[in-house]
């Protein structure tokens, strides 16, 4: 994965060794990150450029801080000096979001209803990076780890990928659901206003209890599970299981579900 330039370079060097291709793509990623960081100072205006950079740099580490759980809300403490409140970071986050360098997800507590945006709390926000290839680069993930899917924290990679796909499809910011003991990574609203939970699973992560808890509480007409395994390619009426790379088909399901 990665920016168009990185992907183009990877295929341009298709006849070269893997090592050569990796080094070339890694250099493009490094140059892109450095360019963004320079732009913080050029275009941040009245907002502290160092604060913007601190938030940007903190996103990968915070995403990777969970192993067998969903990505957590962004933690403000220890990101930049003694600042620890959402109000201290609000403008920096908004700047990064306007520049499309970070993607936002708001976990909603209690029964979710349409419109979901009406129930979000600004200070309860997850921050994802806008590009999964750059995310892996900033974390120093090796090509072998990525190819073999052997790295421990791949759950957040799957979530970041889904968030990216949602953003491309116009579902950004996105929303999730949480309570004291369960969490659903994403919830979406179909054309009729029905709320559909979307659970993201990667590798050996087993979070079926969260989806079961949600179903027992709210009895959704439909559920969707995106899995690293092949899943089911069939369109089932109530419980849909799709491989992660089918995430874009969710948009069709949101239109179809209101007709069922």
From TrEMBL:
A Pfam short name: DUF4143
Membrane-crossing segments per the record: none
Superkingdom of the source species: Bacteria
Domain DUF4143, residue spans: 37-203
Matches recorded under InterPro entries: DUF4143
Descriptive protein name: AAA family ATPase
């Amino acid at each position: 994965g990665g920016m168009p330039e990185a992907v183009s370079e990877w295929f341009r060097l298709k006849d070269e060794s893997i090592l050569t291709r990796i080094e070339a793509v890694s250099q493009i990623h490094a140059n892109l990150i450095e360019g963004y960081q320079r732009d913080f100072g050029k275009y941040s205006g009245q907002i502290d450029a160092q604060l913007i950079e601190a938030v940007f740099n903190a996103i990968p580490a915070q995403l990777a801080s969970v192993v067998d759980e969903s990505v957590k809300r962004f933690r403000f403490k220890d990101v930049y000096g003694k600042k620890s409140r959402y109000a201290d970071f609000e403008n920096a986050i908004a700047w990064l979001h306007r520049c499309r360098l970070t993607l936002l997800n708001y976990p909603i507590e209690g029964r979710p209803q349409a419109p979901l945006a009406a129930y979000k709390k600004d200070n309860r926000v997850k921050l994802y990076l806008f590009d999964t290839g750059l995310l892996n680069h900033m974390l120093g993930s090796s090509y072998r780890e990525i190819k073999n899917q052997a790295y421990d924290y791949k759950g957040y990679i799957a979530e970041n990928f889904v968030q990216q796909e949602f953003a491309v499809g116009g579902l950004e910011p996105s929303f999730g659901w949480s309570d004291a003991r369960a969490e659903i990574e994403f919830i979406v609203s179909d054309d009729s206003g029905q709320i559909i939970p979307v659970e993201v699973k990667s590798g050996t992560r087993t979070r079926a209890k969260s989806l079961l808890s949600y179903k027992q509480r709210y009895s959704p007409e439909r559920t969707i599970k995106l899995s690293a395994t092949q899943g089911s390619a069939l369109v089932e009426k109530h419980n849909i299981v799709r491989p992660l790379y089918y995430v874009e088909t969710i948009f069709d399901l949101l239109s179809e579900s209101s007709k069922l």
